[in-house]
What we know:
Layout: H1 21-29, E1 35-39, H2 45-54, E2 57-62, H3 65-73, E3 78-80, E4 95-101, H4 110-120, E5 121-129, H5 134-143, H6 167-176, E6 179-188, E7 191-192, H7 197-200, E8 203-210
Parallel strand pairs: 1-2, 1-4, 2-3, 4-5
Antiparallel strand pairs: 5-8, 6-7, 6-8
Amino acid sequence: MPEGLAVAPIPSASAPGELRRDLRLIADMVEPGSRVLDIGCGDGALLAWLAREKDVDGRGMELSQSGVNACVSHGLSVIQGNADSDLDDYPSDGFDYAILSQTLQATRKPRKVLRNLVRIGRRAIVSFPNFGHWRIRLRLLLDGSMPETALLSHAWYDTPNIHLCTVKDFEDLCRKIGAEILDEHVLHAGRSVALLPNLLGSLGVFRFRSRR
């Protein structure tokens, strides 16, 4: 399995209140002392928090060189890699949790990526923007153009998001790959949505595992 680098102490800047709402939810799902792989880890805020607050053995993969540099400069074990191709190199059940936060929609092969997540991790945790939110539906209906939102903030012609999905789509894909959903949280504006989540929620956070 590829190894990352650690050159400095774990940063203390990412206090619990500073994590994004979906990252706070994800952090709550992770057991202390776990082995964690965070794919698309960005600047490493989640990994740093988990290492400091839950004593996890954390590793990360990040596509952008700037993100990798930020993580490594803070002592996080992170390598540069692509979720579509480089997850194949990781052993099965190598981690307790494989995490993918707000990255699935930017992958070229989301089905393959999810299969790898539940193969690599005993549990997988994924968050993603919900394209089924009512504001997006209304914009498409009334204006006939691709909407831009806080979570989907790029114009259609320069967006990194190439496989947008809804909460329902994600649930269906989990069933197709034989994954069991353990926890499902749908949010909007930082608050949980219980009623009509696929219509009223803008962000989904799921914890799931293989049925094997």
